[in-house]
Every structure is written in C-alpha cells, then in structure tokens.
Design a protein that fits this description.
Blueprint: H1 12-18, H2 28-40, H3 44-53, H4 65-92, E1 100-103, H5 104-111, E2 124-127, H6 133-142, E3 145-147, H7 153-162, E4 169-171, E5 177-181, E6 203-204, E7 211-213, H8 216-228, H9 236-250, H10 256-267, H11 270-284, H12 302-315, H13 328-343, H14 346-362
Parallel strand pairs: 1-7, 2-5
Antiparallel strand pairs: 1-2, 3-4, 4-5, 6-7
Length: 376
C-alpha cells in the first residue's frame, strides 16, 4: 500500500485541507473555486476551522472571510443544539434498560474527537440493543417523533426486515432528524457481523448519564463500514477525512494498532477497514504501520483491486464539476450497486433494484424549485 497519489492531480480542496498554510497564499479566484468545492463536499466548516486555528482567517481576501465566519457560527450553533437535543433524547428514553450509544457526527462532537471541529451533520445516529427496538420506537412516537413523510409500505418493510435501523424519524416540533440503529450492518449483509460485541464496552459521556460512545477501535470500524460497506458516497470525501482524523488521533494511543486489527477480525469488519487504510493512505497520506493491512487477512484479488481503485479514486473526490474525472458517473453507479450487493442476497437485490427503478420511472415529475442550501 504505497502512498501513490499524484500530488499534482489532487483537487485544490484536498491540498488545502492537508496543508492549510496553502490557503493563506491563494488568490480570490482560487478561493472562489475552493469554497465551491468545499460546499459541495460538506467540508466548508472544516476549512473554516483550519483557517481560524492557523491564524490565517483575518488575512484572507475580504470577500472570503464572511463565508468562513458564517460556517464557524453555524457549526458552533449546531454543537449547542446537539447537546440540548441529546439531553432531551436521554430523558425521553430514560426508561430503556440498555445504553444509548451515539454514532458518527454526534459521537465525534460530544466525545471531543478530532473530526468534530467544523463538521456539520443533518441527523443524530443512535445505537440501541435490538431487543429494545419496539419499546424505543413506541416511546419516541409518544414523545413527538414521527417517521419521515413519503415512505410507502415497501419502504417501511425494507427498513424493518432488511436494514439495521428504523426508518428515519423527525421531531414534529423541533424538526430534529434521528436514525435509530440496532446494529451497524443490515442483517442480510454478506459480511457476518458480531452485533452483540458492539455493546461490550461503550464509554460514558460526562454530564450525560446513560449516554455512551463506542470505544476507539469500534468507532473507527463503524466509520470504515459506513463509507466502504454502506456506500454513503454523497459525503464520501468528508467521511474519508473523518477516517484520516480518527486514525491519526487513535494511532497515538499505546497499543492501538494491534487492538484495532484484532477487533476488526473479531467483529467481522476486516474488509471495510482494509479499504479504509488503502484509500486514506492513497488519497490523504494517512500514517499507520505498514504491517497493519496484512494483519487483516488476504487482500482483494488484483482484478477486483484495480476496479475498486478506479471507482474510489473518482468517487472520493470533491463533488464539484471541476474535480470530476472521466468515468465518474460510471464509478458512482458501480459503487452504488456494490453497496447493495454487499447488503442483501442476489434475489432480494434484484427485486429491490427493480422496484426502485420502477418507482423512479412512474413517479410524478417534481415542480421546479428554487436552489436551496445543500443539506448538512
């Protein structure tokens, strides 16, 4: 796994996020492009945080500064709202006997982890033991939560029978979005996952009794599974930077690397971790022991690896036209199908994709709408 990246081909956004000092010397034209790439990739908050932390914010071209300052204000406001919302969730679900475990953005923010500064997110992800799911759902519905509009009977069945989470919920009064997980991968997934192990040793959050986050190894493994198994590509570059930040942060903990490899094998997430290591090193120069990938078992075969490289090198670039490589749409389509293939058996997959395609063909055309800010 050499650091094969081709610095000259790196998008401007990636170069600046890896070496923030570059931003201080950019022209207004360069900043215009940089901000467009950052917005489309949901990374403008991270960019703003880096410029502020390095002391460069006040020296940047005058038209650039308000964009970055507003991103800083938005991320700080979101942090305040998150703590309040999690506290309300904790009170709502206080009768549930098991732990409430925060995942992803909420866990990074309230756990004080390095991906958090400037990171914007649109919902709260919660993990609870599967046997508590019916009681949790009932309690949430009684306390003002409801399922998103537009889910038909098939979608409800898809979530309840084949997915690892309830259908998305939102609060009718506060407008907050919530995803309630009972494991990290769908029960139909080709990768057998030891879901019970996720509840082995959650870490309590100070000031929020009954609320926990995953330990470092599991937090990193979930981040890897989310990107490289679930195929969440709209925020792919942001999620890759999350992985880079977690690997750098947790790698400083004594004995972390052998524990990570052992835990990946134990839970069943060696393959997503292998891919996370490959593409963080290839695209972001992430440091980790060179012996680590080999400890995760055999790599993909040469042909599979060439295809994966071709796809991920395209899909993990900023979601802006200036960054697209030839074959970009084909790569994204292939990874979309791959993520569904990993989630469900072939027969079920064929039925599901046919159903989705038919739904798109028969849907009523939407009325034209004014451009809205991209969802965080």
């Amino acid at each position: 796994m050499s650091a094969h990246h081709g610095e000259r081909r790196r998008p401007l956004l990636v170069r600046v996020l890896l070496q923030p000092a570059i931003g201080a010397g950019l022209s207004l034209t360069d900043w215009d492009l940089l901000l467009r790439q950052a917005r489309r990739s949901n990374l403008v908050g991270k960019l703003a945080t880096q410029m502020e932390a390095g002391g460069w914010l006040a020296t940047l071209p005058a038209p650039v500064q308000p964009h970055l300052r507003s991103a800083l204000l938005l991320s700080r406001r979101q942090m305040q709202m998150l703590r309040r919302e999690v506290d309300l969730l904790r009170q709502t679900l206080a009768e549930l006997p098991g732990p409430l475990i925060l995942l992803k953005g909420a866990a990074y923010a309230l756990g004080g982890h390095t991906p958090a500064p400037g990171r914007l997110f649109s919902d709260i992800d919660l993990l609870i033991p599967p046997e508590q799911l019916p009681r949790c759902e009932t309690t949430l519905l009684v306390h003002g939560w409801d399922f998103d509009d537009g889910l038909d009977a098939y979608d409800q069945r898809y979530y309840r029978e084949w997915m690892h989470e309830l259908p998305p919920l939102h609060h009718k009064r506060r407008g907050t979005s919530l995803d309630v997980h009972h494991t990290l991968l769908p029960p139909t997934a080709r990768t057998p996952l030891d879901s019970r192990a996720l509840f082995d040793a959650p870490r309590p959050l100070p000031g929020l009794p009954g609320v926990f986050v995953l330990p470092p190894e599991d937090m990193l493994l979930h981040s890897a599974a989310h990107l490289f198994h679930e195929g969440e590509l709209p925020n792919g570059l942001r999620d890759l930077f999350d992985l880079d930040a977690l690997l750098r942060e947790f790698g400083a903990i004594d004995g972390f690397w052998p524990r990570l490899a052992e835990r990946a094998r134990r839970i069943g997430l060696s393959h997503p971790l292998w891919l996370a290591l490959r593409y963080t090193r290839m695209l972001l120069d992430t440091p980790y022991p060179d012996t680590l990938p080999a400890a995760l078992g055999p790599p993909p075969g040469p042909m599979a690896l060439r295809l994966l490289d071709a796809c991920y090198r395209r899909a993990l670039r900023p979601a802006h036209d200036s960054c697209r490589l030839p074959g970009h749409a084909l790569a994204e389509g292939a990874l979309y199908v791959r993520s569904h293939w990993l989630r469900m058996p072939s027969g079920l997959l064929a039925l599901h994709l046919a159903r989705k395609a038919w739904g798109r063909m028969t849907a009523a055309p939407e009325a034209p709408k004014v451009d809205a800010p991209r969802d965080a």
